[in-house]
Amino acid sequence: MSLFKARDWWSTILGEKEEFDQGCLCVADVDNSGSGQDKIIVGSYMGYLRIFNPHPMKPGDGVQPEDLLLEVQLREPILQVEVGKFVSGTEGLHLAVLHCRKLCVYAVSGTLGNVEHGNQYQIKLMYEHNLQRTACNMTYGPFGGVKGRDLICIQSMDGMLMLFEQESYAFGRFLPGFLLPGPLTYNSRTDSFITVSSCRQVESYKYQVLAFATDADERQEPEQQKLSSGKRLVVDWVLNIGEQALDICVVSFNQAVSSVFVLGERNFFCLKDNGQIRFMKKLDYSPSCFIPYCSVEEGTINTLIGNHGKMLNVYQDVTLKWATQLPHIPVSVKVANLQDLKGVIVTLSDNGHLQCSYLGTDPSLFQAPRVDSREINYEEFNAEMKELQKIIKEATKTQGILLPIDSEVKAEAVPSVTVKITIQSRVTAQKPNLAVCVQAPLAVTCDQFIFDDLEPDSSETVVLSVFLKGSCSPSELEGSCVVSYSTPTGIPKVAQCNFRLPLRLICFPTQSSKAANHKLTIDTNKPPISFLTIFPDFVDPSEDDQANVLGFQFLTGSKTTLLASKTSQRYRIQSDQLEDLWLITKELMLRLEEHFKKQNCKDFACSFSGSIPLQEYFELIDRHFELRLNAEKFQELLSERAVQFRAIERRLLTRFKDKTPAPLQHLDTLLEGTFREVIALADAAEENQANIFQAFTKLKSATHLVIMLISLWQKLSTDQVAILEATFLPLAEDTQELGWEETVDAAISYLLRTCLSKSSKEQALTLSSQLCMPKDTSRLKKNITLFCDRLAKGGRLSLSTDSATQQAAVMPGGCTTITESDLEERTVILGSTAMFPTNCCTARQGVGIYS
Length: 851
Description:
- InterPro entries: PHTB1_GAE_dom, PHTB1_N_dom, PTHB1, PTHB1_CtH_dom, PTHB1_hp_dom, PTHB1_pf_dom.
- It comes from Buteo japonicus.
- The chain has about 850 residues and is of the alpha+beta class.
- The chain is built from 11 helices and 45 strands.
- The strands form 11 sheets. It has a 6-stranded antiparallel sheet with strand order 37-39-40-41-38-42, with helices on one face. A 5-stranded mixed sheet has the order 1-26-25-24-23, with no helix packed on it. A 4-stranded antiparallel sheet has the order 2-29-28-27, with no helix packed on it.
- Strand 9 and strand 10 (about 120-130) form a beta hairpin.
- Helix 5 (about 580-600) runs parallel beside helix 7.
- The two termini are about 60 Å apart.
């Protein structure tokens, strides 16, 4: 903020709810008084024309009635006002007023008053031109080097330059490559017009080139304005400034080089007459208007630049010399000579705040009033202090009372678990980076941590929270921590540690349900264990009826019931959704294994003798594949609509660029309709993508369940289960380019032709080397059924038949559950060469991790 404010010399507010812009302000001796004092001419978009001659008694006075010389309503919006020698036969100054479809030239004159009311001023219409095209702005000057008079050039909204030789129309020319009008000015030194096109480049056109580029069918009637199209003009010079311009000004001072100034949206340019850049200034604010006003030192030019921060900056070339605060945002600024006071800054805002100010540091006349001294009454102060302490004491007593609130705030309570991870280093670890990964739709509050270098025997600890983010349950409750670091010799290394999240994160206990669509029975070789023992976090010890029956309510809304047989060694899991059986079944088996392991029972085993729920599994596959097909349809429709949208845009742009615009033929309506279709298709595609993610998560849960049931049914070894998981779960994410269906189909087909083949003839068949999205899922479902059938007939999973492609399947040996407490710790040790056989640990290249 500026240290100094602009000193208010005279100001007023023009009208009520009127609008003003850059061309609405002009200062000149419009009444030809010869006194050298300028008058302020202001026009508004409401059609009011006002002329002021400020005479404040003292600086800062408001407007006096005699300051307003003239106020008249012209009934049409005033786009621009200029003062020049616009009438033939005289060199007196006249006022040119530009309307949307009309150019009017007035003579302003005053009559000496014989009474105390003062002089009287009036305007007289000298001539007017009715325009056939909508005007945008205008400029004036001695076009073609004429002496003693000024010609006017008007730029229309469609890019036509209409030139008037005072009372008569001269000719009109269209600017080449025109799209939108820009600022326009005339350079008398080179006899050329300078503008900034919509291509963001400054262009200069010679007046002689405009004049000689005559129409093919030259006419002298007034209808020529409408019919003239002109030949293609040749630009004199072009300079690309890379931004739109707000204003252009051509100046010539005695002590400075003649220059062309261009004010852009973020930069301020000074050009030579041939278009070369003299200098430019990058602005750190958004400018609103400017004016070069004088040359103080030889070779330099002073410029005023107003901005949207209500600041007015004074530059000497590119050096900021002064900054002052204005009470409004200026849209136009001028420098005038008023009442023998030279260099008054005249500013106008868009809502009509007209101010004449000057720069200076006049001292403020305000003095702080003297404080009346009085004697202190300590008794009153003590009584007031006791009263205040009583009020504070009463307020603190009612802090715990909840008051009824009328407003309703909708918020969902999301359970979360806090995980504490500790990194211990036995060697020097440089630039350690910790990444925490969980299965979507689970999410963490922070998944990346960067630490400073760790010294030997030092540690770092981080705390984060894991929560469910989505409307479906995850397929896994396991997470991983990966630490990447470098040794002092520059060797990169990685340490990893897995952890298992508690089941309570995604579900909570509820009333059990007797009816269910899907039921599974797991057989064991040990008597059933009470749920009070293996599910203490879900069972209330005071309720004995929960010892053999337990209900789980998922956060997504579905329910699952777990039952333990009282007479046999069986457990039943039932639910309305097939995918919801997976996590409860897995948690049951893990807790049973941990229970018997604590009791040193090594012969505990589970088995499954029922039928594999393939039909229900196939329904989830069909649902996922249907959504993938929908995604392809949406992509094709979006591509078609995008092509159509671009084609309509090109046609509209061609119509707008045409020198004789033709009717749009409802192209704008078609463009709007196509745009709405594109937006609707994009929203539908986005919603379908979210549905694909949910369907794939459910499919992975059901696939885990099928793999577990097959392994229990056929009593598969660890290596065989690894092959099974690699076959049915090859992808971590599902995409349109490589989907689950074609990948699993290829893997099962490979097993059916190798280890599960019936004859050498099947082994000789070759598989397709390219994976593509199938037309339907019939082949996949047939192969899965055949896969289970051959396992039931004694087939065994093995990769030994093809030693060239054999790979070691590395499976985690186990994961330790995060307890149901609010805080759980995991420790990663860097630099150890030991092997840890338990709790998801690996050791490779001198790095050991354990949890």
